[in-house]
UniProtKB/TrEMBL annotation:
The keyword Secreted does not apply. Its EC number is 3.2.2.31. Its cofactor is [4Fe-4S] cluster. The keyword 4Fe-4S applies. Coiled coil: none annotated. This is Adenine DNA glycosylase. It comes from Paracraurococcus ruber. Adenine glycosylase active on G-A mispairs. MutY also corrects error-prone DNA synthesis past GO lesions which are due to the oxidatively damaged form of guanine: 7,8-dihydro-8-oxoguanine (8-oxo-dGTP). InterPro entries: DNA_glycosylase, Endonuclease-III-like_CS2, HhH-GPD_domain, HhH_base_excis_C, MIG/MutY, MutY_C, NUDIX_hydrolase-like_dom_sf. Keywords: 4Fe-4S, DNA damage, DNA repair, Glycosidase, Hydrolase, Iron, Iron-sulfur, Metal-binding.
Amino acid sequence: MTVLPPSLPPAAPLLAWYDRHRRALPFRSPAGGRPEPYHVWLSEVMLQQTTVAAVGPRFDRFLARFPTVQALAAAGEGAVMEEWAGLGYYARARNLHACARLVAERGGFPRDAAALRDLPGIGAYTAAAVAAIAFGEAVVPVDGNVERVVARLAAEEGALPAAKPRLAALATGFMADPAARARPGDFAQALFDLGATICTPRAPACALCPWREGCAARRAGIQETLPRKAPKRARPLRHGVHFLLTDAAGQVLLRRRPPKGLLGGMLELPGTPWRDAPWTEAEALAFAPAEGLRWRRVPGVARHGFTHFELEMLLLAAAMPALAPPAGMEARPLVAAAAAMPTVMRKLLDLAAGGAAAEA
DNA sequence: AACCCGGGGAT
DNA sequence: ATCCCAGGGTT
């Protein structure tokens, strides 16, 4: 019998806790059920930097529209991007589609983490998660939950992200325990559930933890300070001006963003570039999608936070009898446009509609 | 190693 | 206002 790394507790208490307290989640198969690889993969991609609460309804909706990986592979990229609208990190949708086509062509998902890792949109974490949950491979997916749990168990005081490899190596050490190796998928999900409900970022509920006796951070009384994180830079404030051009039929003029980069491939209202300095209306009008119109300033501003900057937008509105989209632009009914656009653009539509939420 | 890439919910 | 989330890709 292999010896566990000295800093880790045995797996059995966690698995016993999981058998009693596991969360029932929309994308999770019932206890004892066989996970469908397509479902596991889809949910793991949706869950990348996205909360369980946000994924639940979107997972069901996505599955209703694309029931199998073959159906997803056969769909057009535009349909996939539209279904993803509002979920963020839109490169995930492109990679998801590309991955589906490879898997469909190949006749199924690779069954081990090393081969899964080569597919688009599947990194070290997702490869291990799918391999463990869908195929029972003895690997430990290391997400933010697992990093936090392991950092506390081992009282690892090195700061993230530099400590990431050390924490991943520690987590992998659990697979030396036969109890964990016998149930890799359950063990992974048990770590997720522990991190989400007990070993939380702030105010962990140590009294309820199945590992409370084996946790070095708790013994030292430093559990709330771990994992340590390197300081992050402040987000600058940027400015943009967008144009809402509508016609008598209720259509709005839209533009598609370049395929790569911020909001890649998504629809937007035409506008100025986003820059550090605020725009004057006169300056912004050079970017208007049509000339000779009477643009009227919509009162208020719309704000949206991105990962690395904050954006403040002004909105100018005008009407034409009938839209004649310039090259590279298109017209859609307002409601359909909102459904297909990222949240930052929906906030501009809310502003135009007098929505109080988007005003400053 | 450092950036870039959304959006939402909890505190 | 800040943190953080079942992270991946690029440079």
